[in-house]
Amino acid sequence: MTVIAAPPVKEAPTDTGGDGSRPKRHFATHLVLIVLAIMWLLPLGWSVYTALRPIASTNQYGYFSIAGPYNFDNFVAAWNQGGFSKYFMNSALITVPSVVLTLFLSSLMAFAVSRVNWKFNITLLILFTAGNLLPPQVLAAPLFQMFKHLNLPYWFSDSGTLLNTYISVIAVDTAFQIGFCTFVLSNYMKALSSDLTEAALVDGAGIWRQYWSVIMPLCRPAFAALATLEVIFIYNDFFWPLLFIQSGDRLPVTTAINNLQGVFLSNYNLLAAGATITVIPTLVIYLVLQRQFVAGLTLGSSKG
Amino acid sequence: MPRIRKVRRLSTRDKIVLTAMVAVPTLIELIFVWLPTLFSIGLSLTRWNGLDLSDIHPAGMANYQYVAQDYPPFWPAVQHNILWLVFLGVVATPLGLLLAVLLDQRIRGSRIYQSIFFAPVMLSLALVGVIWQLFYQRDHGLLNFLLGTAGTPAAVDWFGDSKVNIWAALIAATWRHSGYVMLLYLAGLKGVDPTLKEAAAIDGANAYQTFFRVVFPAMRPINIVIVVITIIESLRAFDIVYVINRGTNGLELISALVIQNLVGEGQVIGVGSALATILLVISLVPIIFYLTRTFGKEAKEQ
Questions:
Q1: B46-47 and B57-58: which strand pairing?
Q2: In a domain, B91, yes or no
Q3: Which pTM value belongs to this model?
Q4: B278 and chain A: CB distance < 8 Å anywhere?
Q5: C-beta of residue A254 within 8 angstroms of C-beta of residue A238
Q6: Are B227 and B281 in contact, with CB atoms under 8 Å apart?
Q7: Within a domain: residue B127?
């Protein structure tokens, strides 16, 4: 998904929301919203519903019936036959290092460009921001070939190259996401008062202490929002693993669902259960960290 | 600006630390993003099967000529990308704006509605493809049942039939795009100064006039972001068609053609790179537009 930071928007002093103080009933509005909400829920709801029904029951009564029983058998079967524990593990092995690296590197960059006046600051920021907006397919061929022609010892990589390794996916995911995070974090850091680092300077703190002990703790809200957002982004990334990882059992879950259609053949109940299982981690993050995620997407719209 | 003061205060050690802080991320960005971009342009002017580096032969503009004249899926792909852009721009984005405007009123259950419309934004486009596959399926999909055609010869294989599958894919993409646009506009609407609306109301403007003549123009910065996002999303569209049928049979997109030429039996790196370069050049239009909007002012100040 493309995310670009929104420009600063000042919060209006009072949010009147509707027009006038007289409470309205909004019948027409609710009607439109309810119809749209039902349409919105249908595809996901259909998946969940199909997943909850045993194949025997759908074979007997058809998919369009409400005959029971309902149970979680498909989820268990999909989990075991689909090898989900392996795929989730792979997703974690890619997502966690990528997010940590992205946030760390972009915080370094953001600190340097926002706290110190350099001639090339804007040029660098433009380079980073633009890089994040490119369609990944533009760089697919050269990256693939670069990784393929980089010979590595076999104890390090069984392909003898960077292909089929998590390092390749982590490196490219990180490089792609640094752009967006640097942009957001540098705006955030610019908004912090420069008195803070001035005070630290008087105390004789070096650049690293200013970064690590003064600025970083103040950026926690931005990190929380960005971390949530980046976990979702990288977990949801389909393309880079598709390109770099050839062994099916090394794929992260988002890319692996592409193969599940073949594994489960025409058992749509299992496929629906597999799809639903894949939704669960994002859904949990959404429910628990909704505020952080939304803040991440609109970051820059509240902080200038 | 206390520019000189700051610079002078840096000790040698600080300078080394700062250089490293900038150099490491910049090197990563250059090696994994910008260098490959330049290589793509370079490879588009060569003929290569992707095996031995010494087999790279210069080919001039031959790949571009081939793509434009002798490569059947190219022009359909261009049309589909344009259709994708128009559909997101004319249907998905206005729908997101409508949702935001409706939900910005003080109504009951606003948060619940927001959560419902926003939920698909959390899902990967690949998963969106799988979920809609189940919904669109010919014999067991819910849509054919709702239309009363399931199990009859009139049932449509929405993702399989090359006459309709691009529209089916666009609706699935809209499902996700509108929620995102809604979220951004909800933030934008909160930022509009309420006195503007009051002033318009005093001048006798009705709700439509107030919105289109006052509120919407006041959200100009958000509007620009959304225009850029919509264009870039339509150029980046890939996952959903790749999950459906790898971007063939009615679902050709430039991004999918790039990949078809890079993997598979006969790797034609030059052709794939020419397609990638075409995609790059088109993408640079919205990117440069966005960058000049965002950094133009700052660059002048420096």
A1: antiparallel
A2: yes
A3: 0.86
A4: no
A5: yes
A6: no
A7: yes
Cβ atoms of A255 and A26 closer than 8 Å: no
Map residue B264 onto helix, strand or coil: coil
Nearest to B160 by CA among A42, A59, A261: A261
* Number of domains forming the structure of chain B: 1
Interatomic CA distance for residues A285 and A280, integer angstroms: 9
- Give the pLDDT of chain B (302 residues) as one tens digit per residue: 444 444 456 788 888 888 889 999 999 999 999 999 999 999 999 888 877 777 888 888 888 988 888 888 999 999 999 999 999 999 999 999 999 999 988 888 888 898 899 889 888 888 898 889 888 888 778 888 888 777 777 778 888 888 888 999 999 999 999 999 998 898 888 888 888 888 888 888 888 888 888 888 888 888 888 898 899 889 988 989 998 888 888 889 999 999 888 876 566 888 999 999 999 999 999 999 888 888 876 666 65
Q: Is B277–A254 a contact, with Cβ atoms under 8 angstroms apart? A: no
| Distance, first Cα to last Cα, chain B | 10
How many angstroms separate the Cα of B100 from the Cα of each of A35, A171, B4, B16, B224? 15, 37, 47, 49, 17
Q: Considering the domain boundaries, does residue B58 fall inside one?
A: no
Q: In this prediction, does ipTM exceed 0.90?
A: no
B110: left (phi over 0), alpha (psi -120 to 50) or beta: alpha
Which residues contact residue A3 at a Cβ distance below 8 angstroms, ignoring those fewer than 6 apart? A180, A229, A233, A297, B229
Picking from A192, A222, A186, the residue whose alpha carbon sits closest to that of residue A297 is: A222
CATH code: domain of residue B228: 1.10.3720.10
Nearest CA in chain A to B113: A37
**Which tokens in the block code for residue A33?**
């919203």
Alpha-carbon span B215 to B188, nearest angstrom: 10
Concatenated DSSP letters of B94-160: HHHHHHHHHHHS--TTHHHHHHHHHGGGGS-HHHHHHHHHHHH-TTT-HHHHHTT-TTSTT---TTT
Question: How big is the A-B interface in CB pairs under 8 Å?
Answer: 333
A2 in Cβ contact with A296 (< 8 Å): no
Give the structural domain span for B160.
74-251
Q: Report how far residue B243's alpha carbon sits from residue A276's, in angstroms, rounded to the nearest whole number.
A: 16
User: What single letter denotes the amino acid at residue B78?
Assistant: V
CA-based torsion, A258, A260, A264, A267: positive or negative: negative
The answer to whether residue B1 neighbours chain A at the CB level (below 8 Å) is yes
Establish if B62 belongs to a structural domain.
no
H or E segment to which residue A191 belongs: helix A166-191
Contact B131 A44 (CB under 8 A): yes
| Residue from B222, B265, B252 nearest B84 by CA | B252
Q: Note whether B291 contacts A142, CB cutoff 8 Å.
A: no
Q: How far apart are CA A9 and CA A2, in angstroms?
A: 20
Nearest to A128 among B29, B172, B175 (CB): B29
Residue whose entry in the numeric block shows the structure tokens 């619940």: B112
Sorted by where each starts, the structural domains of chain A and their CATH numbers stand as 27-62+70-297 (1.10.3720.10)
Looking at the complex, report in whole angstroms how far the Cα of residue A45 sits from the nearest Cα belonging to chain B: 10
